DNA sequence: ACCTGAACACCGTTCAAGT
DNA sequence: ACCTGAACACCGTTCAAGT
């Protein structure tokens, strides 16, 4: 009837569960099998435990999804505060794209999560700080972030929806589309696929950089 | 043993099922209950039929989701071909945003669909045509569309993730965030919420227009 | 040709019971 | 305090059977 057994310890081979371990397992699972693979039973199995045990550390599946989004924000590199806001915004966007492509489920999860975690708050606070230090007003900084993040998330969303990941696949898919498509019904689509997307050297990283530069060059601290 | 009964007709009170009717029912259901509400059983119930009957008209749930995305593209207004590409791109983006806000599940569905339907193909072909007529090269038009659509989808994605839909809710949420937040940990976030987001007249349509103009003014036919 | 009952292999979550 | 067996109310999909 002792409340606390002093001599008894958890077996060292099995680390105790925690919210963090549950979220980490969920992220790994999502990377491997997609968001649909993130089930309570699958997460539990990966941790050597039953599904119901997870409810001792998270409130439910939604809580896990919130934690996963926050874990993604934690992976994004943030430049140290600096007055070179343009370089900092460029590097942050490039790092964000890399992280979002590494976790393809993340961008689709964003629009359903409304409880930002500590890493998310830290991220946004740091970005605001960089722009404020660079001379942006409060409203100007908010506007700049909204424009940059819109471009970033939308670009990755489109990049992820492409039905290919390699050059060879692109060629194959492009050929299939052009073959199936009534050329006279969609003349401009056929043109862009044959003349543009299939040309050697077409590269989404270049496209991302060009669009990002276009936006960053149009933003100025005194704009608002 | 007649193959075709000539005199027998379906009761006029119950229209025959079709892929289109299934997709339409799914769109209505998603608008009302969110994407998670789009189950085979719920769609069937709405059509006065059992879930298994749907498989006679669609190949499965994925086929329905593809159809839903195509139905959304069909709702977007497309300007007639014109040389005023900038006005046409503005109006298309504004119409797209309206449609995507009307169907909040659509933007999140985009990144998982890889089989574009006829309305989607028609839409992209028309947009390409407007830019080509406006003097853009094939590569320039593809680039312009990628930048504009990235901004559009990313903006709507962020707009939809906001945990409020009215002015009063915004005030309430903002107050809650500021109250819960350790002010010294996130000074810039507290600043932007109190000084910017809560100020009267803050309007997402204005923000959208400003960012869109910034991008459209930076795009030029001879840029590529 | 189209619809369906029953079944299969899953879900998230609750709850009382164990230790 | 933490874990779990059984159960509940769901999923998408298959298949053989009906008409």
Task: Describe this entry's structure for a reader.
Chains A, B: One of its GO terms (biological process) is response to antibiotic. Chain A is mostly helical and 224 residues long. Chain A folds into two domains: 19-70, Arc Repressor Mutant, subunit A (Orthogonal Bundle), CATH 1.10.10.60; 79-223, Orthogonal Bundle (Tetracycline Repressor, domain 2). Helix content of chain A is 62%, strand content 0%. In chain A, helix 1 (19-33) packs across helix 3, helix 3 runs parallel beside helix 6 (118-133) and helix 7 packs antiparallel against helix 10 (204-218). Chains A and B meet through helix 6, helix 7, helix 9 and helix 10 of A and helix 6, helix 7, helix 9 and helix 10 of B. Chain A binds a DNA duplex (19 and 19 nucleotides) through residues 16-17, 39-41, 49-53, 55-57, 60-61.
Write the layout of secondary structure elements.
The structure is a homodimer of 224-residue chains.
Chain A (H helix, E strand, L loop, with lengths): L18 H15 L6 H7 L14 H15 L9 H18 L3 H4 L8 H16 L4 H24 L5 H14 L6 H11 L6 H15 L6
Helix pairs in contact in A: 1-2, 1-3, 3-6, 4-7, 4-10, 6-7, 7-10, 8-9
Chain A binds a DNA duplex (19 and 19 nucleotides) through loops.
Keywords (chains A, B): DNA-binding, Repressor, Transcription, Transcription regulation
GO molecular function, one term (chains A, B): DNA-binding transcription factor activity
Organism (chains A, B): Planotetraspora kaengkrachanensis
């Amino acid at each position: 009837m002792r409340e606390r057994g002093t001599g008894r310890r958890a077996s060292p081979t099995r680390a105790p569960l925690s919210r963090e371990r549950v979220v980490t397992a969920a992220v790994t699972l999502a990377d491997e099998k997609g968001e649909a693979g993130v089930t309570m039973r699958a997460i539990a199995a990966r941790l050597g435990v039953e599904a119901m045990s997870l409810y001792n550390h998270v409130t439910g599946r939604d809580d896990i999804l919130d934690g996963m989004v926050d874990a993604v924000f934690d992976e994004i590199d943030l430049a140290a505060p600096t007055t070179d806001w343009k370089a900092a915004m460029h590097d942050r966007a490039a790092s964000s794209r890399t992280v979002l492509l590494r976790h393809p489920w993340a961008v689709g999860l964003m629009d359903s999560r409304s409880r930002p975690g500590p890493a998310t708050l830290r991220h946004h606070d740091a970005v605001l700080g960089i722009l404020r230090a660079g001379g942006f007003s409060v409203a100007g900084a908010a506007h700049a972030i909204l424009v940059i993040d819109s471009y970033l998330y939308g670009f990755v969303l489109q990049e992820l929806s492409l039905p290919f990941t390699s050059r060879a696949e692109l060629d194959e898919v492009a050929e299939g589309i052009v073959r199936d498509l009534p050329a006279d019904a969609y003349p401009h689509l056929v043109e862009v696929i044959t003349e543009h997307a299939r040309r050697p050297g077409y590269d989404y990283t270049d496209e991302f950089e060009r669009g990002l530069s276009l936006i960053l060059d149009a933003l100025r601290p005194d704009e608002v």
